[in-house]
Amino acid sequence: MFLKTKMVFIRTFYVYVFIMTTGIQLSSSTKADADINQALMEKLRVLEEKFAKLENDCKQSTLRIEEMSKSVNSRRLLLPNSDTTQTVAFSAYLSKSFDGSTFGTLREIVYDKLESNIGHAYNNYTGTFVAPISGVYAFTWSIYVAGKPDGSGNQGEIAIELVVNAKVVGLTHADTESVNDDDSATGFVIKSLSAGDSVLMRSSNVFRPEGHIMSGNGRARWTFSGWLIA
Q1: Per-residue model confidence as pLDDT tens digits over 6-32
Q2: Alpha-carbon distances of 158 from 161, 177, 190, 218, rounded to whole Å
Q3: 199-217 in b/e burial notation, b at 16+ Cβ within 10 A?
Q4: Would you say the C-alpha torsion 27, 33, 35, 36 has a positive or negative sign?
Q5: 176-228 confidence digits (pLDDT tens)
Q6: CA proximity to 109, closest of 224, 196, 219, 225
Q7: Given 3-state DSSP classes, what are the helix, strand and coil percentages for the chain, each rounded to the nearest 5?
C-alpha cells in the first residue's frame, strides 16, 4: 500500500509541474487561452486537495501499522519461554475385564494397549505417565461396570482416582445395582506439571470395587489419555 501511495504522489507531482508550467505560458496568451488556464488551475486545486487527503491517509496508515507492530511485539514478549515444538500425547485402553472384588483398593490401573504414544511418556507396562517437559496437560479417562454379579453376587461398582505425584486430583465413580443395569463414567482434568511429574490412575478406597468391571470385550473400553496443551 505504501509503494502504491508513493507512485500516486510522484504522478501527482509531475502533473502539478506540468500544469504550473503550462499556466505560466498561458498567462501571456489570449483571453480564450486565459479561460483554459483558469480551468486548468481549478483542476490543479482539486488535485491538490486530493493529494492532501491522500497524504493524510498515508500518515494515518503508517501510524496504524506502527501500533500494530508494537502490539504484536508486546504479545510475543508475554509468551512463555517453553519448548512449544515438542508434541506429547498418549491414548491407551484396558484390554481385559476383571472382577472388582479380587482387584482391591489403591491399585494402579495398567492400561496395557496403546492407541498412540507420541513422545513415549506413557508406560503401558506400569500404567504411569511421566511428563517429559513442564507445561499444562489435559487428562481424560473412562470407566465401565456391568450389571453382572461376581463370585460374591455383587453387581459392578468402582471408583477411580487420577493421581499426580501421590496426590489425588480427579475422581469418578460408576455403580450398578441390578442385572443388565450397566453404568459408566468419564473424568477430565487440566493440570500444570513440571518435568518429571508422574501421573497414574488407581482404584479408590472411597468405594470398594465390586462386581464385573468391563473393558475390551467389544462393548466398552476403559481408556486413559493425556496430552500437552500449552
Answers
A1: 454 455 555 555 555 555 444 455 777
A2: 10, 12, 23, 20
A3: bbbbbbeebbbbbbbbbee
A4: negative
A5: 988 888 899 999 999 999 999 999 999 999 998 998 898 987 788 999 999 99
A6: 224
A7: 35, 30, 35
